[in-house]
Amino acid sequence: MEQPDFSRVEHLQSSGFIKTGQDRPAHIDAKTRVALVRKGNELFNAGRIEQARRVFITTGYSDGLIRIGDYYLTKDRPLDAFRMYWLAGDRKKIEPELEKMARVIRHWLQEDAES
Fold this sequence. Notes:
The protein is an all-alpha fold. The chain is built from five helices and no strands.
C-alpha cells in the first residue's frame, strides 16, 4: 500500500479533519495513523499548533491533545485547553479545570444574588 503524503497538511481548511469523542477513527489504518501522528508532532514542534491540533484530533492521539491543552493554558485559553483534555480523556487534567469553572460560576451567582 502506498504511503499517503502528509507533507502538505497546511492546505486543509480551518475545520481540518473532523472527529468528536475519544474513539480512534476506524477509517484510518495503523500505518497511516503513525504517519499522521509523526506529522502532528513535527507541526507542534515547529510551532504550528493549530495544524497539529487538527491532526491529533483526527488520529485520537491523546498525548498530543494533552500537549496542545497544556500549550493553550500557557496562552490563557483555559476553555480550549479543557476541550483538548476532554478529547484526550485525561481525568487528571479535566478535574482541576472543572473546579476552576465551577468557582467562576459560583462567584457570578453570588454577585448576582448580592445585586
